[in-house]
Write a structure and sequence with these properties.
Elements (H helix, E strand, L loop, with lengths): L7 H14 L12 H8 L3 H13 L3 E4 L3 E4 L2 H4 L4 E2 L15 E10 L3 H4 L7 H5 L2 E9 L7 E9 L17 H8 L4 E12 L2 H7 L6 E11 L4 E10 L4 E2 L9
Parallel strand pairs: 3-10
Antiparallel strand pairs: 1-2, 4-5, 5-6, 6-9, 7-8, 8-9
Helix pairs in contact: 1-3, 2-3
Protein name: GntR family transcriptional regulator
Keywords: DNA-binding, Transcription, Transcription regulation
Pfam families: GntR, UTRA
Length: 250
C-alpha cells in the first residue's frame, strides 16, 4: 500500500518552519510576500495562504493588514507554554530545548477512561492488550522540571513496530505509519481539566490532585481504526492552548 503524500501546503509549511527556526528570516526583516513565495516555490496562492495559516497557528509568524507578515520573536516562538494543533506534524510546539523520553512499560488493556474513546464496534480493541509506553517531556535538555507526563498505547497488532522506532522522537504516530502498512486518517483530541492522579503526580513531582490539563489524542488509520492513543498530563502552570481563527475569504 502506497503512503499518502502530505498536501503541498503542509510540505511548504514544513520548509518555511525549518527556514524560520534556522534563522533564515530575521525577525526585523520583512517576510516574503505571498506573490514572492508563489514564484519561488512554484505553488498557487491557495497553497501559500494555507501554509502561512499553519505557521501563524504555530506562532511562528504574525500577519497584520497593512504591515505584511513578520516572524515572531524567539520568546514567542519557543514558549514552552504554547501548544498548537494546526496539523499533524505541528501538533506539539514546545521550547527548542524540550526533550521527550518514552520507554516500554509492558502490555495492558486500555484504561476505562481511554477505552471510552474507542468506538463500540472495535470490540477486539477493548479486550486486547495494547503495548504501553510511559515517559516525560522535560525542558532544559532533560535537566529541568517536567513539562508533561505521557502515557501512550499502541494497538496490539502494531506492537512489533516499536522495535524499529525512536522512542525519543515526538512523532511516534508518524514512525508507526512509516514502518506499518497503513496511512493516518483522522485524529481526535480532547482537552480537560483534571486533578493529578497518584501516578501522574509522582511522575511530575507535584502534589496529588494538583490541577492538570489532560490531553487525550486518538490516532486512527485510514479505515477509521485507532492505532495509537496518548494520554498527556500538563501541570496547569506549564501549559496554555491557543488557536487562530481567520475570517473566511469571500
Amino acid at each position: 500500500m502506497s503512503k499518502r503524500q502530505a498536501p503541498r501546503y503542509e510540505q511548504l509549511a514544513d520548509e518555511l518552519r525549518r527556514a524560520i527556526r534556522s534563522g533564515q528570516f530575521d525577525t526585523d526583516a520583512t517576510f516574503p510576500t505571498e506573490n514572492a513565495l508563489c514564484e519561488h516555490y512554484g505553488v498557487s496562492r491557495f497553497t501559500v495562504r494555507e501554509a502561512l495559516r499553519c505557521l501563524q497557528n504555530d506562532r511562528l509568524i504574525s500577519r497584520r493588514r497593512g504591515s505584511g507578515t513578520v516572524v515572531e520573536p524567539r520568546s514567542v516562538r519557543e514558549s514552552a507554554r504554547f501548544q498548537a494543533f494546526s496539523s499533524l506534524d505541528a501538533s506539539r510546539q514546545y521550547a527548542a530545548d524540550a526533550r521527550m523520553t518514552l520507554a516500554r512499560d509492558g502490555e495492558a488493556a486500555l484504561p476505562r477512561s481511554l477505552a471510552a474513546f474507542v468506538e463500540a464496534q472495535h470490540t477486539a480493541l477493548h479486550k486486547g492488550k495494547w503495548a504501553r509506553l510511559r515517559g516525560l517531556l522535560t525542558q532544559g535538555g532533560g535537566d529541568d522540571h517536567p513539562v508533561a507526563a505521557i502515557e501512550a498505547y499502541v494497538r496490539p497488532d502494531l506492537a512489533h513496530l516499536l522495535e524499529r522506532v525512536d522512542l525519543d522522537s515526538r512523532a511516534l504516530f508518524r514512525q508507526l505509519e512509516s514502518h506499518g502498512d497503513f496511512t493516518i486518517g483522522r485524529v481526535i483530541q480532547q482537552i480537560a481539566s483534571v486533578p493529578a492522579s497518584i501516578a501522574m503526580a509522582k511522575a511530575l513531582g507535584i502534589p496529588r490532585r494538583t490541577p492538570c490539563l489532560r490531553i487525550v489524542r486518538v490516532y486512527h488509520d485510514s479505515d477509521g481504526v485507532p492505532f495509537e492513543i496518548t494520554n498527556t498530563h500538563h501541570p496547569g502552570e506549564a501549559f496554555s492552548y491557543s488557536m487562530v481563527i481567520e475570517p473566511e475569504q469571500t
